[in-house]
Amino acid sequence: MKVIIVGGVAGGASCAARLRRLDEKAEILMVERGPYVSYANCGLPYHVGGSIEKESSLLVATEQLFRNQFAIDCRTNCEAISISPEKKTIELKNHITGEVSTEKYDKLVLSPGAAPIRPPLPGIDLPGIFSVRTVPDARHIREWLERDSDRNEVTNPYSGIDTVSKPKRAVVVGGGFIGLEMAENLVHRGLEVTLIEKLDQVMPPLDREMARLVERYMTKHGIHVELNDGVAGFRKSAKGSLEVLTESGKAHPADIVIMAIGVRPETALAKSAGLEIGKRGGIRVDDQMHTSDPDIFAVGDAIEVKDFVTGQWALIPLAGPANRQGRIVADVIAGRNAHYRGTQGTSICQIFDATISQTGVSEKVLKQLGDTDYEKIYLYPNSHAGYYPGAKMLIIKVLFRKSNGRLLGAQVLGEDGVAKRIDSFAMAIQMGCTIYDLEESELSYAPPYGSAKDPVNFAGMVAVDVLNGDMPLTHWDNLGDGFLLDVRNPQELAVESVPGALNIPLPELRSRIGELPRDREILVICRSAQRAYYATRILLQKGFKAKNISGGMLSRSHCSQD
Amino acid sequence: MKVIIVGGVAGGASCAARLRRLDEKAEILMVERGPYVSYANCGLPYHVGGSIEKESSLLVATEQLFRNQFAIDCRTNCEAISISPEKKTIELKNHITGEVSTEKYDKLVLSPGAAPIRPPLPGIDLPGIFSVRTVPDARHIREWLERDSDRNEVTNPYSGIDTVSKPKRAVVVGGGFIGLEMAENLVHRGLEVTLIEKLDQVMPPLDREMARLVERYMTKHGIHVELNDGVAGFRKSAKGSLEVLTESGKAHPADIVIMAIGVRPETALAKSAGLEIGKRGGIRVDDQMHTSDPDIFAVGDAIEVKDFVTGQWALIPLAGPANRQGRIVADVIAGRNAHYRGTQGTSICQIFDATISQTGVSEKVLKQLGDTDYEKIYLYPNSHAGYYPGAKMLIIKVLFRKSNGRLLGAQVLGEDGVAKRIDSFAMAIQMGCTIYDLEESELSYAPPYGSAKDPVNFAGMVAVDVLNGDMPLTHWDNLGDGFLLDVRNPQELAVESVPGALNIPLPELRSRIGELPRDREILVICRSAQRAYYATRILLQKGFKAKNISGGMLSRSHCSQD
Fold first, then answer.
1. Which of A59, A295, A492, B472: disulfide with A488, CB 3.0–4.6 Å?
2. Residue B238, pLDDT score
3. Cβ neighbour number for residue B345 with a 10 Å cutoff
4. Contact residues, A window 306-325, toward B, CB-based 8 Å cutoff
5. Three-state SS for B227?
6. What is the pLDDT of residues A478-507, one digit of tens each?
7. Which residues between 504 and 543 in chain A have a beta carbon less than 8 angstroms from any beta carbon of chain B?
8. Neighbours of B129 (CB within 10 A)
9. Which residues of A touch B23 (CB under 8 A)?
10. Is the CB of B449 less than 8 angstroms away from the CB of A40?
11. Could you tell me which residues come within 8 angstroms of residue B429 by beta carbon, excluding any fewer than 6 positions away?
């Protein structure tokens, strides 16, 4: 059996290695258009930033390793240019020699990835405008950042970084993972960075009110964040640097521009072979990664996946799923019964000292689907016991089904303990967990790591209180004409108060309950919604209509309508 | 309805607060023998060590807070001395006034905790021998450490720490959580620390071969670890300091001794009331925390719990379970249908820069139960992408059912990313996860946090390969008379080699396969068992009998029989 794999990075390389382990006799040919296989594209921003110093660190496995260790015919600089599904042949072009050859396959695996979107804007081809996809891309960015433009040559990266002629101002176009990581890494290199995003938020997998906090954090760290403004074009300024022109008419000066407005599945080859393409533009596959041709498989960023939670087709370009898909194809080719479960969209991103993460579905996506069978909560627990040094506030949003308590999604931000929590939520979603399970889950606790009630337990407890009716909930963007009751202490109100709210500190509530109206819905406010929960319980039991405002004052600044 | 809660720390305080939220009308009386309620006993070692500076930081909620915020009659220094289940009364003694009173209850909740075991050894009452359970315990230890013994008075904690008369040598008796945390914290204070443990390992929840690594790590950090030696007594030395005498006849000089040999459920009150006590010595409860008297509940360290994985009764004193049990009692008293699921034993411990963690069942416990339907694997993955700075090796042991793949337990050690992984495993076990689920789980990945195949995925993949028969496995303590094949490179063998093993580097295996015997079981070795896995796959497909040695050379030093 001869298997040809097109694309030698995450999904392709994973498939090739696994297939060799399962089938020592299979003839395996893996071709990669670029100069490297199995390189760490997730590391590229950090190589640009300098925390990964050596380019060679990014090369996880080499062509030679695939040949020697796996007996795989591995060819770099070799592009698949057309497929004949009827003849089961593929045409390959060697980019070094220019030679074109035709190879027969029994099974073909497509793992071409996705290409950075590069819209045909005026000036897009000016020098100094880069994408970040490949090792050479990162190399070119580094060279550009290290150049001495007066002498128009590449200088020592660490010698003259402060000379006048070095790039000083960067514009990053696009506020997704790569955009954020590049923005941070360019700040680390000493550049003044502007991030331009056409949408009304950065980090599209997050809900907008959570992204607000990311934007503020970036601003606090010196990044100029410009939302709701698309790029209209680029031009060379009088001084020889670039200008990024936006749809709103602004011109942002830039010595370097990073284009990171997203990726588009590489489907040209699949289309030329007549393979079915999904509505979202990715190659359509079944749960064994078969394309519409049973002898051709596809994996990775080029395909559409089923969203694990919603069951909808989606484009979710992530390394973990690509690797698992590659393994599944190898299993299927080797005659095993493997199935892909769908993609949850678990992701995580470092930005300065903070971590941004999410798993499962966002509220935005639920709304797009017209799904109203959900509730949401906001929590602001400590990352670990508050009495142990270094505790930081976590910011957590959890979405769950109103009808059955199933956990739908979680978004976690913070400067400590984020990965611990998002992975608990991610594993929970994978296992079909409900909020009742979250409440009872037994997570690790010692003062440096968590609390006896871990934030994940705490999320379950709060959610259960909501579903049980113990704690009716409302949100800052939906206060209606409720009567506002603030149960914080007067000292807290001195810092920030809510106009029109009556203040009765919680310890006085029982004795002053006569001050509250019985004919209106009472919306209770405190710092984090904990004391407001206690107050809500008192009020409900005393016959009042009461709701807690989720997340309390900590939610107010980012969850209120703006 | 009147509810009396005996014990105002984790389980009791949690129950009291929850009950008030559920029932505004209930009369709630919470009594605590000691001077503080709801204090952070998990923080005591860190207060001794100084990283938690203020004693007041340990007081999570005060008596006053319970009174004012929760309208709970909260009494400290108040001990329950007897119960009359027939009359439904309890006798309380006020330790300040000496007054004894009798209170009637409708429901009684016992949360008395567990007391440090203090065996009646010769000299046990000598000054300078401490337990670590309460805030006053920690205070007395600090005072002792800060005293100037020549002047026999307490000195400023931070002025004269290096004077000759300060305690310099500590002996910690017992190698469990508290013992380890105390040992570390005493090292931080500049003491020379000896840890004495009667068992053949520290950290009893870990398997012995995993504990080996902890012991080495402690030794590396200057702690003298003495295993297999019990304490026989204490005496005052000629110089006025202490000596700890052991069963083996040693005498360890000590200026301070910390007794941390475990805790014993406080069952005196329960016994006096005729409540059923389990075989392991804890109060017996059902899954709604009822004792044998339907109006008396018990929670926390004083009770026996069902082990979540094995279903056996066990004593597992942990703060998280105690808190959840307290909530469940409140729910049940309030007429709700809440049930406790059992305790997994998820725990985590910091020791210098390392983290030690476990969840679910250990191999030791499976062996004690005569359970042979399990397999184990050892893994040594990076905590995050190796090319990103700061990656550290994780040491992972995973136990799973041979018959159905169910995840039974995990032990994770390392200096980075441990909590992220143990919580994934913990959530997985709570949800009845199999190794097939682990393989497909979608955990967070970006270079600073993990790998595209997270260590938890990787554990699933390896385990599935074992159960599928793709990778027959053996272990260093069970090599039998297999033929040893080492597939590492010669440079690696120069550092450490296995006597009698034939070396064929993996890339040469296919061409040199004729050198291997067909009539013997070939046991394959490499550094981490990854290349050995590739080799095993080649050998099996070429008709050899082959097994991988789990964990490779990285397992050898701690998993070989000693």
1. A492
2. 80
3. 24
4. 308, 318-324
5. coil
6. 999 999 999 999 999 999 999 999 999 999
7. 506-507, 510, 531, 533-534, 537-538, 541-542
8. 21
9. 541
10. no
11. B308, B309, B344, B359, B360, B407, B408, B409, B410
| Amino acid code (one letter) for A108 | L
**Long-range contacts of the stretch B58-64 (C-beta < 8 A, 24+):** B58/A387, B58/B135, B58/B138, B59/B135, B60/A387, B61/B13, B61/B37, B62/B36, B62/B37, B62/B38, B63/B36, B63/B37
Query: What is the rounded CA–CA span in Å between residue B385 and residue A77?
Result: 26
pLDDT at B239: 79
Q: How many CA atoms lie within 13 A of A490 on its CB side?
A: 1
Q: Does residue B340 register a pLDDT over 80?
A: yes
Phi, then psi, of A68 in degrees rounded to 5: -75, -45
What's the Cα-to-Cα distance from A500 to each of A357, A455, A483, A534, rounded to whole Å? Answer: 36, 32, 9, 21
Which residues lie closer than 8 Å to B294 by C-beta, 6 or more apart?
Answer: none
Indicate the residue of A58, A68, A446 with minimum beta-carbon distance to B349. Answer: A446
Q: Out of B43, B388, B442, name the one closest to residue A43 (CB).
A: B388
B133 Cβ partners below 8 Å, 6+ apart? B41, B44, B115, B116, B263
CA A531 to chain centre: 33
Q: Could you please report the per-residue DSSP string of B376-431?
A: EEEE--BSS-TTSTT--B-EEEEEEETTT-BEEEEEEEESSSHHHHHHHHHHHHHT
Cross-strand bridge partners of residue B382:
B393
- Extract the runs of DSSP E, i.e. beta strands, from A444-489: 473-474, 483-486
Summarize pLDDT for A245-266 with one digit per residue, the tens.
Answer: 999 999 999 999 999 999 999 9
Q: Of the candidates A43, A177, A448, which has its C-beta nearest B350's C-beta?
A: A448
Q: How confident is the model at residue A177 (pLDDT cuts 50, 70, 90)?
A: very high
- How many other CB atoms sit within 10 Å of the CB of residue A315? 19
Residue A341 gets the label, from left (phi > 0), alpha (psi -120 to 50) or beta, of: alpha
Cross-chain Cβ contact B447/A46 below 8 Å: yes
The distance of A147 to chain B (nearest Cα, Å) reads 25
Name the burial class of residue B544, with classes exposed (0-12), middle (13-18) and buried (19+) by CB atoms within 10 angstroms of its CB: buried
Q: Which residues of A247-273 are buried (b: 16+ CB within 10 A; e: fewer)?
A: eeeeebebbbbbbbbbbbbbbebbeeb
Which ranges in B276-379 belong to alpha helices (H)?
319-333, 363-368
